[in-house]
Amino acid sequence: MWISYPHVPMLDSLWSLFLASFEQEKKKNPIFVSLLKQLRPIELSEKKIVLHCDSHGLAFFLQKKIPFVEKSLSKQLGKKISVELVVLAKKKKVEPPLLRFEPTEDDIMRKARVSGRYRFDNFAVSPTNQVGYAAARAVSESLGKAYNPLFLWGGVGVGKTHLAQAIAHKALSDNKDKGVFFSPGDLFTNELIEAIREKTTIKFRRKYRGLDLLIIDDVQFIAGKNAIQEEFFHTFNAVISRGGQIILTADRPPREIKGLEDRLRSRFLGGLLVDIQPPDFELRSAILLIKAKEKNIAIDFDIAKVIAEQIVDTRSLEGTLLSLYAKTLGNGETINLDVVESFFKQKNNERKKHLSPADIIKTVCSYYNMGLSSLRGPTRAENIALPRQIAMYLLRKELGLTHEEIARLLRRKDHTTIIHGVSKIRSLLVRNPMVKQEVDRITNSFEL
Question: Which of 25, 105, 163, 428 has the greatest count of CB atoms below 10 A from its CB?
Answer without folding.
Answer: 163
